[in-house]
Amino acid sequence: MRELSAFGLSGIISADDMRVIDKNADGWGISALQRMESAGTVLASVVRDEHPDRVAILCGTGNNAGDGLCAARHLANEMEVLVFCAGEPKTPEARAQLAALTACPVTIMDAETPDLFASDVIVDALLGTGARFPLKEPYAGLVARMNASSARIIACDVPTPGCRADRIAAFHLAKTHAAEVYNIGIPIAAEVFCGEGDLLLVPKKPADSHKGSGGTVLVVGGGPYQGAPFLAGVAALRAGADIVRVASPTNGFMPDIIHDRLSGDHICEAHRDHLISLAENADAVVCGPGLGGSADSLTVAAEVVGAARKAVVDADLLRSPLPRAASETIYTPHPGEFARAFGTVPESLVKRGEAVRTAASATGGVIILKGKVDIISDGSRVRFNRTGASGMTTGGTGDVLAGCTGGLLARMQAMHAACAAAYAVGVTGETVCEELGDGLLATDLLRHLAHTLYTEL
């Protein structure tokens, strides 16, 4: 694991990335309550550095508040501690911290008093990384009073929007400029390996959704391999796409898919204008499943990718020069296809990670190098996915991954879509293999994929 630390994050990270890391830490045995206890201990140490006689800790209702409540407990016997609670804690971890705090010699209040803002130090534990302007009451008023006070203000992880901060105690990684970063025991694996946290970023359809709001996906492929584009198409539907069209010179009928039957036995120049028109009107295009290696098929398919806003490039289309969509492109090679497009695949995991990062940087897209451990990179960050099972060596599972990736790409940023798809398809394979073992079919994955993506968290 030590060698993979080179792929860890640094600098300022987004709220989404921190949500992923937090949830992934659960999978490595570091619970939210453990992380909160570590963060609260660190926060108490930062307060001690200021040598205050009185500290006021202003808490909201989320886990940011839980960090503040924990810090109050650690400081309770050392100085005068005033704790303001803006409301009842909403998370079980924050509720546990408040329950423990009630057994300590601190003053807990739910109404503002002058003493709060006359403290030597004020800890801003009101709102976390998801807070946005405009603030509602009581938060807007509390921020105004903090800003007007003469106290030193210490922000817990991030300042509440609009609040001045003399110090920012950030946990694990910085979420804003000028933060002091403190380790709270989250393992590096929570950053570099895909996990359940990656599924948190998969958008759920709101109650007022309508047909098409989940995205439209075009799958272009088929000819020599009849089933591949249909496997990809159903996988895109299972990944949440609302409308999927399969354009293929292959006969087939699936009631959930719009089948655009192309003339002839392979994709060729005669289909070019029609396919480009379809690509221009799709949210994402999956191109390559079952395509075959004929020169005219590859030429037309590459032009279709070039006309797309977003695209997943798979199978025979993975060869130099690689086609690229206008906005975001994800490439899904197995080792042989990677070698054909980019050169030799190194043996060691670390060197593979570096090779995939270099290749992704050169293409300007995201690469999923499929294998026992999948490697995913956008040219900057590198992630590893360990999910999957031996029964997934059967034909068609790669088409399911391509389709799932396309279905997510229609509504997500490319790197997030790639990580979520690789993790979800692998977990689905593990689930199916427990039941069927080596008799797994690619179509078996389709029955369980949506459950993995949308109901297991």
Automatic annotation (TrEMBL):
<feature type="binding site">
    <location>
        <position position="290"/>
    </location>
    <ligand>
        <name>(6S)-NADPHX</name>
    </ligand>
</feature>
<keyword id="KW-0511">Multifunctional enzyme</keyword>
<dbReference type="InterPro" id="IPR000631">
    <property type="entry name" value="CARKD"/>
</dbReference>
<keyword id="KW-0521">NADP</keyword>
<dbReference type="InterPro" id="IPR036652">
    <property type="entry name" value="YjeF_N_dom_sf"/>
</dbReference>
<keyword id="KW-0479">Metal-binding</keyword>
<protein>
    <recommendedName>
        <fullName>ADP-dependent (S)-NAD(P)H-hydrate dehydratase</fullName>
        <ecNumber>4.2.1.136</ecNumber>
    </recommendedName>
</protein>
<feature type="domain" description="YjeF N-terminal">
    <location>
        <begin position="13"/>
        <end position="192"/>
    </location>
</feature>
<keyword id="KW-0547">Nucleotide-binding</keyword>
<dbReference type="InterPro" id="IPR004443">
    <property type="entry name" value="YjeF_N_dom"/>
</dbReference>
<dbReference type="InterPro" id="IPR029056">
    <property type="entry name" value="Ribokinase-like"/>
</dbReference>
<keyword id="KW-0520">NAD</keyword>
<comment type="subunit">
    <text>Homotetramer.</text>
</comment>
<dbReference type="InterPro" id="IPR030677">
    <property type="entry name" value="Nnr"/>
</dbReference>
<feature type="binding site">
    <location>
        <position position="398"/>
    </location>
    <ligand>
        <name>AMP</name>
    </ligand>
</feature>
<keyword id="KW-0456">Lyase</keyword>
<feature type="binding site">
    <location>
        <position position="399"/>
    </location>
    <ligand>
        <name>(6S)-NADPHX</name>
    </ligand>
</feature>
<keyword id="KW-0413">Isomerase</keyword>
<keyword id="KW-0630">Potassium</keyword>
<comment type="similarity">
    <text>In the C-terminal section; belongs to the NnrD/CARKD family.</text>
</comment>
<dbReference type="Pfam" id="PF01256">
    <property type="entry name" value="Carb_kinase"/>
</dbReference>
<keyword id="KW-0067">ATP-binding</keyword>
<comment type="function">
    <text>Bifunctional enzyme that catalyzes the epimerization of the S- and R-forms of NAD(P)HX and the dehydration of the S-form of NAD(P)HX at the expense of ADP, which is converted to AMP. This allows the repair of both epimers of NAD(P)HX, a damaged form of NAD(P)H that is a result of enzymatic or heat-dependent hydration.</text>
</comment>
<feature type="domain" description="YjeF C-terminal">
    <location>
        <begin position="194"/>
        <end position="456"/>
    </location>
</feature>
<feature type="binding site">
    <location>
        <position position="228"/>
    </location>
    <ligand>
        <name>(6S)-NADPHX</name>
    </ligand>
</feature>
<feature type="binding site">
    <location>
        <position position="334"/>
    </location>
    <ligand>
        <name>(6S)-NADPHX</name>
    </ligand>
</feature>
<comment type="function">
    <text>Catalyzes the dehydration of the S-form of NAD(P)HX at the expense of ADP, which is converted to AMP. Together with NAD(P)HX epimerase, which catalyzes the epimerization of the S- and R-forms, the enzyme allows the repair of both epimers of NAD(P)HX, a damaged form of NAD(P)H that is a result of enzymatic or heat-dependent hydration.</text>
</comment>
<dbReference type="Pfam" id="PF03853">
    <property type="entry name" value="YjeF_N"/>
</dbReference>
<comment type="similarity">
    <text>In the N-terminal section; belongs to the NnrE/AIBP family.</text>
</comment>
